[in-house]
C-alpha cells in the first residue's frame, strides 16, 4: 500500500498551474507574504579580496561594516570573493536540469524521516501543514582529506552515472564554499577582536551541509511560502540566489527583501555562530516567497563544525558584563534536535537550550 506521503508527491509540473492551492500549503494570515513589495534591506557589500590584502584601511573598513551588520541582523554580502563565476553558473544549470527530471528520478535520492540529506519536497517531509512551496536536494560536505570525494560519491551512489557530471560540479562548488567560509571566519574573528585565525582554525575540517532550493511558480503566491520563517541553526550560511528574488529578512519588526546580485553571496550568521560569539553576533529570521511566473533557485552552503568540536565562545568574549549566554554543545546534538524533536522555526535555538537543560 502506498503511504499517504508517497501518493501525494509534490509534482511541480502540475501544482504550478493550479489555482486551487491544497490547504496544506496555505499559511496562516499573520505569516502570509506581505501584500506590497517589502522595503529593501540595507546589507553592506564587503570587498573580501580587499580585506584579505591585509591593507589596514581595508581591514578596518570591512570589520566595521561586518560588526555593525552582525550586531543588528547578521546579514551581509560578500563581493570580490574570488569564486569563479563559471562554477556558479554550472551549479545553477545543473540544478535546473536536476529539478526538471521526473519525480521518480529525483526520488532515487529520497530523504528519509529523521535524515537531513536527500531529495525532499513538501510531501516527503514529516509535516502536514504550513508546507513550503519548494523542492530541495541536500547533501553532506566534509573538508577532511579522507572524505575528499564525499559529494561526488553521494551523487553516484544515489542518482547513478547520469548525474556524475553534476556531482563533480557540486563537489567543486562545496570546496569553494568551504574555502570562502574560512575566509569569512577570518573576517568575523577580526571584527569580534579575537584575531583572524581563531574561528578559521575551529572550522578547518568542517562537516557542512549543502542545499539546493528550487521554487516552482505558484498561481496564488500570496497564500504560500517557499521557505517558512526560520533562523539557521548552523554556523554560517553562504547563499547564492539567481536573479528572480524572493529572500526576505525580518528586521525592525518588518520584512525586508534582499535584492539579487549574481556577483555577490549573501552571508548570514546562524545560531551556532551566535553561541560561538557568546551572543554578540545574532542570527535573524528569514524566509523565501515565490511568484506566479518564474521558478527561483538558490544554493545554500551551511557551514557546520566537525562533529567533535565543542561549541563554546573564546574566553576573550566572556566577561562580567557579558557572561556565558548558552551552554556548551556539539553540532550533531543540535542537528538531531532539529531532525527528530523540533521543526525549525523562529524559536529553534531557544527550544534547544531548554531541551538541553532538561536532558
Ligand atoms: O532560498 C532562499 O533565499 C532562502 C533559503 C533558506 O533560507 C534555507 O534554505 O534555509
TrEMBL record:
Superkingdom of the source species: Eukaryota
Domain called Fe2OG dioxygenase: residue spans: 205-305
Pfam families for the chain: 2OG-FeII_Oxy, DIOX_N
Keyword terms, alphabetized: Iron, Metal-binding, Oxidoreductase
Keyword Iron: yes
Co-factor requirement: L-ascorbate
PROSITE patterns referenced in this protein's UniProt entry, alphabetically: FE2OG_OXY
Pathway(s) where this gene product acts: Hormone biosynthesis; Plant hormone biosynthesis; gibberellin biosynthesis
GO molecular function term, any single one: metal ion binding
Entry coiled-coil feature ranges: none
One GO BP: coumarin biosynthetic process
Xref: InterPro entries: DIOX_N, IPNS-like_FE2OG_OXY, IPNS-like_sf, Iron_ascorbate_oxido_reductase, Oxoglu/Fe-dep_dioxygenase_dom
Catalyses which reaction(s): gibberellin A12 + 2 2-oxoglutarate + 3 O2 + H(+) = gibberellin A9 + 2 succinate + 3 CO2 + 2 H2O
Family, per entry: Belongs to the iron/ascorbate-dependent oxidoreductase family. GA20OX subfamily.
This protein's name: Gibberellin 20-oxidase
Natural source organism: Torenia fournieri (wishbone flower)
Lineage: Eukaryota, Viridiplantae, Streptophyta, Embryophyta, Tracheophyta
Originating gene: TfGA20ox2
Amino acid at each position: 500500500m502506498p503511504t499517504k506521503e508517497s501518493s501525494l508527491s509534490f509534482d511541480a509540473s502540475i501544482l504550478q498551474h493550479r489555482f486551487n492551492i491544497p490547504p496544506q500549503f496555505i499559511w496562516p494570515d499573520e505569516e502570509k507574504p506581505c501584500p506590497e513589495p517589502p522595503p529593501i534591506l540595507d546589507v553592506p557589500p564587503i570587498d573580501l579580496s580587499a580585506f584579505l590584502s591585509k591593507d589596514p584601511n581595508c581591514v578596518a573598513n570591512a570589520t566595521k561594516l561586518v560588526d555593525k551588520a552582525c550586531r543588528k541582523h547578521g546579514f551581509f554580502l560578500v563581493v570580490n570573493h574570488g569564486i569563479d563565476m563559471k562554477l556558479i553558473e554550472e551549479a545553477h544549470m545543473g540544478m535546473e536540469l536536476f529539478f526538471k527530471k521526473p519525480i521518480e528520478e529525483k526520488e532515487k535520492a529520497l530523504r528519509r524521516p529523521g535524515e537531513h540529506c536527500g531529495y525532499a519536497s513538501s510531501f516527503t517531509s514529516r509535516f502536514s501543514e504550513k508546507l513550503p512551496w519548494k523542492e530541495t536536494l541536500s547533501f553532506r560536505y566534509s573538508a577532511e582529506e579522507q572524505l575528499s570525494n564525499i559529494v561526488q560519491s553521494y551523487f553516484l551512489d544515489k542518482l547513478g552515472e547520469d548525474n556524475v557530471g553534476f556531482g563533480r560540479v557540486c563537489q567543486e562548488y562545496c570546496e569553494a564554499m568551504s574555502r570562502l567560509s574560512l575566509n569569512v571566519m577570518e573576517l568575523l574573528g577580526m571584527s569580534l577582536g579575537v584575531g583572524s585565525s581563531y574561528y578559521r582554525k575551529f572550522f578547518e575540517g568542517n562537516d557542512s551541509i549543502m542545499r539546493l532550493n528550487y521554487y516552482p511558480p505558484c498561481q496564488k503566491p500570496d497564500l504560500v511560502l517557499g521557505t517558512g520563517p526560520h533562523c539557521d541553526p548552523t554556523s554560517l550560511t553562504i547563499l547564492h540566489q539567481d536573479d528572480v528574488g524572493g529572500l526576505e529578512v525580518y528586521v525592525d519588526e518588518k520584512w525586508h527583501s534582499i535584492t539579487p546580485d549574481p556577483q555577490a553571496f549573501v552571508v548570514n550568521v546562524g545560531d551556532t555562530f551566535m553561541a560561538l560569539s557568546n551572543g554578540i553576533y545574532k542570527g535573524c529570521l528569514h524566509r523565501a516567497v515565490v511568484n506566479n511566473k518564474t521558478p527561483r533557485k538558490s544554493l545554500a552552503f551551511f557551514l557546520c563544525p566537525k562533529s567533535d568540536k565543542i561549541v563554546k565562545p573564546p574566553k576573550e568574549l566572556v566577561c562580567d558584563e557579558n557572561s556565558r549566554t548558552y551552554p556548551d554543545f556539539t553540532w550533531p546534538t543540535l542537528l538531531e534536535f532539529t531532525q527528530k524533536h523540533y521543526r525549525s522555526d523562529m524559536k529553534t535555538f531557544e527550544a534547544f537550550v531548554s531541551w538541553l537543560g532538561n536532558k
